[in-house]
Amino acid sequence: MAESNHFSPHWDLSAGEALLQDVFGIVMDEAVRKGTDASEKVCEWKEPEELRKLLDLELRSQGERQDQILDRCRTIIQYSVKTCHPRFFNQLFSGLDPCALAGRIITESLNTSQYTYEIAPVFVLMEEEVLKKLRALVGWSSGDGVFCPGGSISNMYALNLARYQRYPDCKQRGLRALPPLAIFTTQESHYSIQKGAAFLGLGTDSIRLVKADQRGRMIPEDLEKQINQAEAEGAVPLLVSATSGTTVLGAFDPLEAIADVCQQHGLWLHVDAAWGGSVLLSQTHRHLLEGIKRADSVSWNPHKLLATGLQCSALLLRDTSNLLKHCHGAQATYLFQQDKFYDVALDTGDKVVQCGRRVDCLKLWLMWKALGGSGLEQRVDWAFTLTRYLVEKMKMRKGFELVMEPEFVNVCFWYVPPSLRGLQDSPDYGQKLSQVAPVLKERMVKEGSMMVGYQPHRSWPNFFRLIVANPALSTADLDFFLDELERLGQDL
Ligand SMILES: Cc1ncc(COP(=O)(O)O)c(C=O)c1O
Fold it and tell me: Which GO terms describe its cellular component (predicted)?
């Protein structure tokens, strides 16, 4: 009887340890080794009905044996897309950094929340240091920041902070405290700006779309025009959201000129550098973000180009007045006791709208320790180098037509199959070309040979957007991509 007081009858530690040992082995073999091996499939497509059956998703009252659980782990990995695979060009993230993964494993194993020094002493100090480093790359020697659950949320924070700074009353009085506000961005910006405006009660109507040039960069003269027009219509201009590295075309808005306009009109300048922020690490390419230090806030997702793994997204602020805490704090006394035995300024939980918050700094910190700033710089430069390589190779082949010369690592192009070559002037060319990418996408996914995204954009018919982000990529992987697309499309 005394024994049972010491050991829970529901808890078998040694069986748990054995399971985890086996799971780590499966993860190493199936997710890490095979998941990054070019000779393996990038995905194993199943129709949803078949996949539901294969996964046996139903949750039952009876538990399963350890060997069954291990089989389930294998099955889950088998039918999941291998985003670290060198033939995965589909998203703005790809690739596996072992130190970043080690950081993620430690984070998951320790399972703490970032909100107080009390329960996350290491990570509170680490987050502070990582954010300081990111801010220094932006060009700020002081400021604030926080890791957010993704770039979309970072962008929403920026909107909320800009609004609170101008109208602190709105924290208590809500929308009643506000005149109609205007937010300026281009149609190339990420859709999270629209979502943020809706979510924060500003409404999507408060967004004024500023014209972009052919490459997708904001036109500052049109920004000026839009601001004047908004004012003439009785709206109060609040914020400009410029983008460094747009999602589809990879364009960089001209930040110096935009900052001039913001300064002149007293507007908050937010730079959504979720995608392009990591370019700041490169001495060669950081000029693309010239002027970023004049921003009030910056979103930056190391989980994209730096391959830290999802998710790792920083919102950086120039503010030194504790705006984050004033704007979002609720002073919960059960968590943020002011009479604690340490400096309570280290309890960062009231800077955010969440309560529990994941640790997102460790994966980046550990990777940075291992590679150094110079290793990260090489990673960014390599992506640019490979992009050039791919573009030159495309120009040498028939059937590859660039939408434009890339400025970044987004390679946007049409694959023109043999039957459509030379027919550019025929009236249904655009419509026929638009059908090519979806067919090729289906073929590549069903074969599991590679993955690349496509979209219609502006008035352009469907085109591919290949992202060069995986740090393990070599020229051979890009040659394979070109060969494979030709093979998949030879009968079209
Ligand atoms: C420019 C830009 N901003 C924001 C985001 C949103 O980031 P997240 O997916 O982390 O929410 C993306 C995502 O692709 C993006 O491209």
Answer: cytoplasm
